[in-house]
Amino acid sequence: MPLVLRPAIAVALRGALAAVSPVSCAGCGAPDLEVCDSCRLLLRPRPVEAVHAGLRVVTALRYEFEVREAVLAYKQRGRLRLAAELGPALRAAVEVALPAGSPPTALVAVPPSPSGRRRRGWDPVTTLARAARVSASPGVLVVRPGRSSSQKRLDREQRARARRGSLRCRVDLTGHRVVVLDDVLTTGSTVQEARRALEDAGAEVVAAVCLASTPLASHAAS
User: Fold this and answer.
1) Reduced to 3 states, what is the DSSP secondary structure of residue 184?
2) Three-point CA angle 60, 62, 65, nearest 5°
3) Alpha-carbon distance 92 to 19, whole Å?
4) How far is the CA of 45 from the CAs of 1, 60, 190, 220, in angstroms?
5) Distance (Å, rounded) from C-alpha 39 to C-alpha 192?
6) pLDDT digits over 136-189, tens only?
7) Long-range contacts of residues 66-72, Cβ cutoff 8 Å, at least 24 apart
8) Most buried among 53, 62, 192, 222, by the most CB within 10 A?
9) Is the distance from CB of 174 to CB of 204 less than 8 angstroms?
10) pTM for this structure?
């Protein structure tokens, strides 16, 4: 029987391993630095607005090269300290989506899949939101049982079909303005499914904010 660690224990073990492991830049691999100066410049926010299937989407970074490596190091390799490096970019995108004077609007985080949560022991989007000092609401959206298979090898249409109906909203949001919060925009299927679930619960979804977008997502914007 495989050993399954509780989330808190898994996070603690990753932190202990990080403390004794050699440190290298999360973006380019330069030794002895969490993030080198050159890669830190690449992580400076450059918010871009686009429209995906009628939904306004704001992203802060281009998900490629060193930026992609840094996001993967944070999300997949458990380098949680990178949240402090990535957080300001997410905050900048939120500020573009919701400028000063905007009506009250809730930020709702896209949830990790159950398998992703078990594997990591933590939630990448809400952790990043805390580092960005923005108030995101975790647990509003949940993944329906049996709808958490990997989509990495799927094309745009396959992802959309796989995502359809995969999320549900646990609360009544009638009359509430909402912005969807996610980490990486690839095809847009995840934020569109979040939008559907939130609108089914009565929300007015005014935008989505993502830390980074792939070149594919940027090309597909209309």
Assistant:
1) strand
2) 140
3) 30
4) 45, 5, 22, 21
5) 31
6) 988 899 998 855 545 555 555 666 566 678 999 999 999 999 999 999 999 999
7) 66/27, 66/28, 66/38, 66/39, 66/42, 67/27, 67/42, 67/43, 67/212, 68/212, 69/26, 69/27, 69/28, 69/29, 70/26, 70/27, 70/35, 70/39, 70/43, 71/183, 71/184, 71/211, 71/212
8) 192
9) no
10) 0.83
Q: State the Cα–Cα distance between residues 220 and 90, nearest whole angstrom.
A: 21
The residue to which tokens 């209309």 are assigned: 222
What one-letter code names the amino acid at 48? V
CA 195 to CA 179: how far, in whole Å?
9
Q: How far apart are CA 166 and CA 168, in angstroms?
A: 7
Q: What is the DSSP string of 116-130?
A: HHHHHSS-HHHHHHH
Tokens of 43: 């992580």
- The number of residues in the chain equals 222
Contact 105, 137 (CB under 8 A): no
Q: 23: alpha, beta or left, given left = phi > 0 and alpha = psi -120 to 50? A: beta
Distance CA(114)–CA(147), nearest Å, equals 9
Which of the 8 DSSP states describes residue 81?
G
**Residue 6 CB burial class (10 angstroms; 0-12, 13-18, ≥19):** exposed
- Which pair of structure tokens corresponds to residue 42? 């690449």
What is the pLDDT of the chain when averaged over all its residues?
87
